[in-house]
Amino acid sequence: MTDIQNSRPFVLMMSEITVDGKLTLFRGASSKILMKYMSHESEILLHTTRAEVDAIMVGSRTIAIDNSFLTVRLVKGKSPLRVIPNSRADISPDANVLSGGVPTLIAVSEKAPVENIRFLEARGAIVRTYGKDKVDLPLLLHSLYEDFGVKRMMIEGGPTLNRQMIKARLIDEIRLVHLPFIVGGDDTPSLVGGDRIESEDEMVRLELKEHYLCGSNLITEYKVL
Fold first, then answer.
1. What domains are defined for the chain?
2. How far apart are CA 197 and CA 202, in angstroms?
C-alpha cells in the first residue's frame, strides 16, 4: 500500500438492506421509503454512529434522490463534516447538504465549471479539487485525514459510491441493518453496483465481527479483509 492509502481515515460503510440485498424499492426510488421501516432502536444506532465519526460521505446521486441532511438528530452529539464527491459540482441548489449550519465539503474534478464552484461556495460549501476527470477517492481521503483532521468516517452511499470505495480498498468495516422484506427487481439497486466480477479471486472477503438484534432489526458487522 502507498503512503497516501495509509494516511487516510478509518472508513465504516453503513446501510440498510433487504433480505435480497436491495437498497430501495426500485431504481430511482429514495432509500427513505425503506428506512422508515427500520426500528426506532436502529434509527438511534444510525444517528449514534454519525455522532461518533468525524465525517460522513454520500454520492451526489444519493443526494439528488434522497436529499438528506446527513446530520445528528436523534441523539446528543456533533454533526460530522458532510463530504460529497461531485465531479462537475452540479449539486442542486435545493440540496439540504447546503444548509443546516453544518460544514459541507464538495469534492470536484478539474472538469467542474467555475460558475458551479462559485455557486456552491456562495452557499457556504467548501469546494476542493481532487482529480482531473473524476474525483480521485484515495486523494480525497488523504486530504480529509491530513487537512481536515478526519480520523473516522462513515459512508451511507448508494451502489456506485460503495463499489468505487471497495474497489479502491478504502473500506475497513461494513455495518448492515437488515430489513425483513424482499423487493426483487433485476435493476433495483443493491448494496454494491458496478461491473460484475469474472472469478472468485475478485471476491471481496469479509470476516463477521458481530451480529445482534437492534429492536426488530438484525445488525451484522464485518471486517473487510
1. 3-224 (3.40.430.10)
2. 6
Res 73: pLDDT: 94
pTM passes above 0.90: yes
Q: How many CA atoms lie within 13 A of 32 on its CB side?
A: 10
Which amino acid appears at position 171 of this protein?
I
Beta bridge partners of 152: 10
Find the Cα–Cα–Cα–Cα dihedral 164, 30, 49, 178, rounded to 10°: -90
- From residue 160, give the alpha-carbon distance in Å to each of 94, 111, 168, 191: 22, 20, 12, 9
**Burial category of 39 from C-beta neighbours within 10 Å (exposed 0-12, middle 13-18, buried 19 and up):** middle
Residues comprising the chain, all counted:
225
Please give the radius of gyration of the chain, using alpha carbons only, rounded to the nearest integer: 17
Cell output for 47: 444517528
Report the Cα 195 to chain-centroid distance in Å.
Answer: 19
Q: Give residue-wise pLDDT tens across range 124-138.
A: 999 999 999 999 999
C-alpha cell of residue 40: 426506532
pLDDT in tens, 103-117: 999 999 999 999 999
**What cell numbers appear for 181 in the block?**
422484506
Give yes or no for a contact between 21 and 121, defined as CB atoms under 8 angstroms apart.
no
Query: What's residue 1's pLDDT?
Result: 43
